[in-house]
Design brief:
Layout (H helix, E strand, L loop, with lengths): L1 H7 L4 H8 L3 H8 L19 H10 L5 H10 L6 H10 L27 E10 L10 E9 L5 E6 L4 H15 L5 E4 L15 H10 L2 E4 L9 H13 L10 H14 L4 E4 L2 E4 H6 L14 E7 L5 E4 L2 E4 L8 E7 L4 E5 L5 E6 L8 E2 L2 H13 L17 H17 L10 H12 L11
Helix pairs in contact: 1-2, 2-3
Protein name: Transposase
Organism: Streptomyces demainii
Pfam families: Mu-transpos_C_2
Length: about 450
Amino acid sequence: MDAHALRRQGWTISAIARHLGRDRKTIRAYLNGERVPGQRRQAPDAFVPFLPYCRQRLADDPHLWASTLFDEVTALGYQGAYSTFTRALRRYQVRPHCEPCHASTGRNVAVIAHPPGEEIQFDWLELPDAPEGWGVGEHAHLLVGALAHSGRWRAVLSESEDFPHLVQALDEVMRKLGGTTRRWRFDRMATVCYPSSGQMTAAFAAVAKYYGAGVDICPPRRGNRKGVVEKVNHSAAQRWWRTVPDGLTVVQAQSGVDKLAVRMDERRRRIDGVVTTVGELAAAEPLLDIPVRPYPAELEVERTVSPQSLVQFDGNFYSVPPGLPGAQVKVIHRLGEDDLRIATAGRAVIAQHHRAPRGAGQTVRDDGHVIALERAVLASFSDRAPCKNKVRKPLSAAALAEAERLRGHTAAGDPAERVVIDLSHYAAVADRLRSVPPPKKEENPE
């Protein structure tokens, strides 16, 4: 505006440029209408000439890698960088949508309404690189349960993902949440349903009936149906699992994930214009009461007996009879009962104990096992002085006789290694050579 006003007053372009502190070419472009205030001049997009080719290639092969397509267009004369090329692919939406690969990307998404107290979403989270002291193999298993309405979640570490461990973790998660909802939602895990058909198994149907809840199975490749627990899995993996040190025990790790879950109850939510928190929403959800004892599934794990005749289970140690160090035994516990049994591989029960609280670090010993172990140790104990190691001990007569037997056995058993030196044959040959007359001279016939 100033340039046009000064021009109408008769100022030259050079005077206007000096007055406004701009280049003369810039002033001339604005005065001639070549530039418009508030609009930047866009450089020509180098990708546009190659757009039809890229559309055709990705229409033929929607899964073609962008790096492969970049190599092709570079050979055709494209001068841009790879990051600029991929940005142009996204800007022009060149790659077509593939429904099996991107179930919820590139199509309309509807928000699923979750009334209070209606649904809990459960999912296993496999955590790689578990500490060696946990004894769970390469992966640790975390069962996460999230209230679909409020977003409150709790999680339980488990040794395995089989049916008894699933029931045990399921019960503990619901007790941490304060009850159960009317419906449970799972993906197609084999311990809940048949993955091919989605029909619930009879064993898990009995579990759901015991707790008075219905079960909803997600369709195949529809993880967005349980998006609440999927987001919780991401938070637990990034905010807790990435920082778990090597020396941490399972009980300490469980305490860490519990603290994170409680801290995330402070997340803020806005409901009908009112600001609240996840914890306040969860406290208002009408959850159903659960039975006093968990579903009586039988938990069976394999353990190794220690040299102290102890077996580790759920953060405690239980005694077995002496004489079994290093043996493989099975710990059998029916959920809800106060006792556990320790059996051999053939399921012969060798010990039965009152189960200590999980993670208490207690050592539960049977008096009979203690007495038997003391007797076995004392019987093998000797009060003699230690043997002297700086003494001379030549070979005994029995050892020498055994050595001679071995030498004779070796000589008779391997003719190839037997060496016999006998000079009588050579002496007889020499005597015959001495008595042999000299050869006669041939006579000349002439």
